[in-house]
Amino acid sequence: MGDLDLAAGSELNMNLIWASILIPVATAAVIAVANARAARGLAAVGSLASLGALAAFAWQFPAWSTGGVSPEPGGCAWIASINATLGIGFDSVSLLLALLEALLIPICVIGSWSAITDRQREYYGWFMLLHASILLAFAARDVLLFYVGYEFTLVPLLFIIAIWGGPERRQAAHKLFLYTFLGSLFFLGSILFVGWQHHASTGLWSWDMGTLSSFASTRLPANTQYWLFAALLAGFAVKVPLFPVHTWLPLAHNQAPTAGSVILAGTLLKLGTYGIFRLALPMAPEGGAALAVFAAVLCTVAVIYAALICWVQTDAKKLVAYSSVSHLGICMLGLFALNPIGAQGSVLYMINHGLSTGALFLLIGMAYERYHVKDMDQIGGLAKRMPVWAFFMVFFTMSSIGLPGLNGFVGEYLCLFGTYIATGDASTKYPGLLGPGFALVAGTGLILGAMYMLLLVGRYVFGPLREPKADSHGKHGHDGSHGHDAHGADHGDHDGHGDLTGREVGLLVPLALVCLFIGIYPKPILQAIGPVVERTLAPYPAAVERALMSKPQATEAVQAQAKEDDRG
Amino acid sequence: MNPIDPQLPPGDPLVMLGLLASAILFAVGIVGFLSRRNMITMFLCTELMFQGAGLAMISYGRQHMDLSGQVFVIFILTVAAAEAALALGLVVLLYRRKETLSAEAWKELAES
Amino acid sequence: MIAAPAMLSSVLALAEGPLDAHAAPELRWAGLALLLPLASSVLCLLCGWLKVRSKLPAALTIAALGGAFATILRLQGTVGETPVVVNLFDWIDLTWGDGSRFHGFTANVDLYIDRLTVFWMLFVTGLGTLIALYASEYMESDVGKGYTRFFGAVSIFLFAMGCLVMGGNLVMLYLGWEGVGLASYLLIGYYFTKPEAVAAAKKAFIVNRIGDLGLALALFLIWQCYGTVEYAALWKAIEAAPASSEWTAQAIPWLLMLGAFGKSAQLPLYVWLPDAMEGPTPVSALIHAATMVTAGVYLIARMFPLFVVNPDALAAVAWVGGLTALLAATIGMAQYDMKRIWAYSTISQLGYMFLGLGVGTTFGASYHVFTHAFFKALLFLTAGAVMHGFAGQLDIRKLSGLLKVPGFRLVSVLAVLGCFWLAAFPFTAAFFSKDEILVSAFTAKDDRVHLLGWIGLLVAALTAYYTFRVCFRVFFGPVKFEPGHELHGHDDHDHAHDAHAHHGEFHPHGPRWAIRVPLVLIAIGAILAGWPSYRTMLHHDESNWVKTQVAQSSAFQGVAAESHGSLDGHAASSHASAHTEDAHADHGHLVLGMDAHTAVGRLGSLACIVGILVSLYVHLINRGTADALRRTLMGTVATRWIVVGAERKWMVDEFYDWVIRLPLRVIANILSAIDELLLDAGIVNGIGALPAAVGRVFRPLYGGVVQGYAVTMAGGVALVAAWVIWIWLRGAN
């Protein structure tokens, strides 16, 4: 293939990306008119086809080691009057996240086969649209297109939670929608502002991420960048979610159907972290440097705060939901270390968190399907009934608490490492602003993480077998107003709380294998992330040095140095 | 104002009379609309307000020596006629539902 | 194929088989020591998957561990005086930037093989094999149930221990460090339906995590100070800049210590080890006595160059070790559960090892690790055999005279032998290793640690007492026993010999060959462990095998420099021969007017014999005395606390519960309430309710009466009109 025409290759790549995005849309359309019984099969086929297209693209992807974007920026016009385009393309970071999404969606779809029994067409249709919009967001190189993908995810998710969720599903969906929508407004306002500034300054409209980033980072004054970063951070922080704006997450997770939780933890939250990585950091380096410490404090607080809250939860799903807040605190901390180690760790952490937390939600969902209880006061010791389930539960717990050899370790460790060495030592290339104090405090999250996750395992998986009374099965956890009583059909007999079926094991094994692979051999992924991270952080050393200068002690040091120079 | 525009001197009696009449028509319409509950009466009152507004347009058209005002009114009359047919049809339908013409009967259409 | 993905080619490079001996540079086959246990754990997983109902997993594990042992034996013959680094495959290899100090971070899957590595791996894999053989019979009631899980976890343990010991950098060590923690967690919690076992497993993992955090931070610091975490490069960096006064460099040993104390159950973090006895006995023997808990000693020995430059840290290690030894010994004296007593004795002996490290004799510490591994494994395994035969009975008050019970003679004899070793009876292996440590304590240059020599002697006496307390109670005296209530440990499976449960008809069943053979072999190993010292004693030959092994490693880097006081000696010492003078060879110190070696030898023997004699009287000749003494002590308020304190383990668990866990729990509950009530229900929902509240003010206007809407509209128009008129009037003025 060495003689392959570059343009043709680019076109092929472009088509593959569009295929991966549009196949789910087409699937949704077919599902809408198809027989309800065929919906789940169609959705599985569609999501697998989308995965296939994206995998084919990843196979062709020429920029694994260069950090570049492929296909080249540019695309057909979308809103011609302001020069918005349908520009799409991946670099290795967004491609990895998109691959994670494409991997999780078939798992979600097939995982819902037994859990979702009513209104199947709508369910799978919405899921396909959700998939398409998330992929679109990751693929977009045009900020407006990114916004569309980013924002449209809320619509399918709203329906998925509000129709197929738990007893408080309406409130959860409502809160999720309004809260994250509010955050998105900050983000929309910021990018419109930057686009307008670009127009005012150059006379041209452009919404290309690269163009806007280089424009904003070089041409906007530091004060403007400060507010720009603050607004973008405020916008994405809700989605991540960072500490004070996280409260929608536990509720949404707790009420969402299993697959909804998986995709929410797996990739939707990553849209927030990805947004900070892709837009906030490159657009406003001065702001990023100025606000890094503030953001890092929030992250650190989140790590401890959420971990302690996890520790006193009795609801298994809520525990894992809060653990997301804690984990993403570490993830973001690595990003705000503003050096390649931390940022590489952070990106890897995004993937890892998606895998292990997604799998944990899946596992809790599988147990929930059998018992319709997730309160650990009422249920526990399930290892006796379901040894295979218990095996996977322990496996992914270990992945989640960062056992070396599994995926969680590498990301977590690099995040903390990056934080640790970001001491503001000007002799290094990436001085950073954080330092050992942050690493130490966030590092206690490792201990707390082990505490709450082992509490979960100790009560839910191990210990004496505690099962809810058989006669309460039909009612528990339902409010009766709607379906999802799958047990009526599939698990009618109460003695049939069997272990995982082949289908369920088949869902978990790929995730486990990926976890193992990343844990044992993260090098290719880290190598792929590296150049992108370095490109993103390119303006930071200078910005951080300026931020360091503005600190009083730094000023003093400089003055002392100047005095010495004078004497000399 | 464009100085080339021809314009009658202020205080032309016909214009003043027309404006006065339009004000009276509009006031009668609004008072009627607010005070009556009978849907047909209310509808008639809206028509009165319409015509008041139309009359004002014609008067100002004369003041400015411009026919656009009259053109507009002809348009409005046409639309109002179509609207009247529609509205009266609706009123008949509503009457059939509740056997009354009172607007109070349809309170439940409120948002809250 | 320009678009050929870089990721995949890397994967293919992996698939080509870095562990493949044929394609490797000469020592790549050493990776088998890691690969075999790993393969065995995978195969055990497969067995579990296929629901194998035979002893196949045990056979696989034994074969794999035996293979690993053979690999290490061969390595022992191959490895010379210089350490070797064997790269298996690249793991974390990050580079960036422009050659400034923080320009890259490399931690590959390398093996760093020197004599210390081989020494450690020899007893780890050797004992591992024997104990796996033992367990194949011990766990047989679980065949088809937990059997595969057990052996899978044992294989994981051996793999992780291999990474810990053989890894070529600190990240590999950390991998092994947490890996053994996982294996320990899985095995302590083996009887997972038992809440105590689950709680103990959790406790072990979490307490170890505290230490792990220390280790992780130390790793960051080492990288920050020396720019690398790979041993080979690290020693060079330390040589180039041995002593840095920066706080970062100063903090490294303290953080490493935290890690070591967590894993090796030393003073602030020892509380998990006694509880860990909830696991099956072979696990207690292998992991919680012989091998895993010595990882902390290995860590400090391996990183000794970093400790040598910091005398304060060394003194702290010594003191923590000494005090732990004392504390654990006092608790051990007052317990009744045989396994718990051995657990406390393990903590106490580990304390000796740290004492040895702290006073600079890495050789003494490593030697004690070595001898301890054998006799403690022996003691645990015999305890397990007793427990196995007597339906879970471990209470030393309910077992007596086992020497005379048919089928238990061999076990009893071996257990009594083990007691002699543990008590460091003169001319047993442990006597020599303990001697080495205590002599160094007396002769150390640092005055602050001399007192520890005396504490060490006191502990020796206490050890002899409590060891023979068990020995005389259980194995001597009249034959008398009550069976336990549980079948085979803590298993609750409803099967088999419930006929035994009737007290009257209880017939203890003795162990078969798979238990006897390892016991005998381990006993032989324990005897042979003293061989180097016998040689030294008989031939006045200083070329002690253990010392050679330890000396040709990083553990001796700096030790010799201390005694020579010269930097060039320091540089040479890393590969120095065993003939290098050890710190204790400094004969200038006198203890009680005698040469330190002679004095400690005599005092140690005396302490041991006094302890045994007291025990002999109180627990064999006149068994009533012990209870009488206890009653007397309990009778007086002034002395009551001694008994209660020792029996209730000085309330350390309760203390931690009240001072750490409870406040944390309260804070967590408060935070949870804040999160739900203040943040979510208060602020977020409050803001959400704001628009609705505003709307409610205007709601009466929109009650569905058409005129209402009209009034607001007309009112609005009127307001606008009034405003326009007002503007107009103002303009008119």
Give the topology, please:
The complex is a heterotrimer of chains A (568), B (112) and C (733).
Chain A lengths: L5 H28 L5 H22 L16 E3 L4 E2 L6 H20 L8 H20 L3 H10 L1 H11 L4 H34 L6 H11 L2 H18 L8 H8 L2 H26 L1 H27 L4 H21 L3 H32 L15 H14 L6 H15 L14 H26 L40 H19 L2 H15 L2 H11 L1 H16 L1
Antiparallel strand pairs in A: 1-2
Helix pairs in contact in A: 1-2, 1-4, 2-3, 2-4, 3-4, 3-11, 3-14, 4-5, 4-6, 5-7, 6-7, 7-9, 7-10, 8-11, 9-11, 9-12, 10-11, 10-13, 11-14, 12-13, 12-17, 12-20, 13-14, 13-16, 13-17, 14-15, 14-16, 14-18, 14-19, 15-17, 15-18, 16-17, 16-18
Chain B lengths: L12 H23 L3 H25 L4 H31 L14
Helix pairs in contact in B: 1-2, 2-3
Chain C lengths: L5 H10 L16 H18 L6 H23 L5 E12 L8 E10 L1 H24 L8 H20 L3 H19 L6 H32 L4 H10 L6 H17 L8 H4 L5 H10 L4 H8 L1 H5 L2 H23 L4 H21 L3 H28 L9 E2 L8 H14 L6 H15 L6 H26 L4 E2 L31 H16 L2 H9 L5 H7 L7 H6 L2 H7 L16 E2 L2 E2 H26 L2 H12 L1 H11 L4 H47 L7 H27 L1
Antiparallel strand pairs in C: 1-2, 3-4, 5-6
Helix pairs in contact in C: 2-3, 2-5, 3-4, 3-5, 4-5, 4-11, 4-16, 4-20, 4-22, 5-6, 6-7, 6-11, 7-9, 9-12, 11-16, 14-15, 14-19, 15-16, 15-18, 15-19, 16-17, 16-18, 16-20, 16-22, 17-19, 17-20, 18-19, 18-25, 19-25, 26-27
Describe the protein in words:
The complex is a heterotrimer of chains A (568), B (112) and C (733). With 568 residues, chain A is mainly alpha-helical. Helices cover 71% and strands 1% of the residues of chain A. Chain A has one domain. In chain A, strand 1 and strand 2 form a beta hairpin. Helix content of chain B is 71%, strand content 0%. Chain B starts with 12 loop residues before the first helix and ends in a 14-residue tail after the last helix. With 733 residues, chain C is mainly alpha-helical. Helix content of chain C is 68%, strand content 4%. A two-stranded antiparallel sheet of chain C has the order 1-2. In chain C, strands 3-4 form a two-stranded antiparallel sheet. In chain C, strand 1 and strand 2 form a beta hairpin. Chains in contact: A-C, B-C. At the A-C interface, helix 2, helix 7, helix 12, helix 14 and helix 15 of A face helix 1, strand 1, helix 6, helix 7 and helix 28 of C.
